[in-house]
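2024-03-11 09:14:02 INFO worker-7 job=invfold-0412 stage=load source=structure_tokens
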């Protein structure tokens, strides 16, 4: 079980990841974290934990892809209009 940042936003993030949400939905959730004062490093850590919990399989591969999309927006490894935090997170 990954650590908790903000329970209600965490639940929304997990639901979005499970459903294979699109980039704009993921970004909206990530923006809620940012507006709540959560750092990019904290969210990146959560996403890394979630990624590590993904097991082999086609469905899990699709979930990992969505996690990686979210991680890209957190770390800034995406198109500028999708970036959520200004600072770079490695």
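2024-03-11 09:14:09 INFO worker-7 stage=emit residues=90
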């Amino acid at each position: 079980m990954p650590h908790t940042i903000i329970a209600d936003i965490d639940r929304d993030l997990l639901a979005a990841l499970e459903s294979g949400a699109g980039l704009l939905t993921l970004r909206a959730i990530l923006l809620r974290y940012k507006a709540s004062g959560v750092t990019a490093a904290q969210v990146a850590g959560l996403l890394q934990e979630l990624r590590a919990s993904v097991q082999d399989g086609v469905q899990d591969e699709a979930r990992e892809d969505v996690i990686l999309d979210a991680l890209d927006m957190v770390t800034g490894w995406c198109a500028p209009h999708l970036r959520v935090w200004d600072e770079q997170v490695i």
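2024-03-11 09:14:09 INFO worker-7 stage=report msg="Residues 6 and 79 are 26 Å apart (CA to CA)."
2024-03-11 09:14:10 INFO worker-7 job finished
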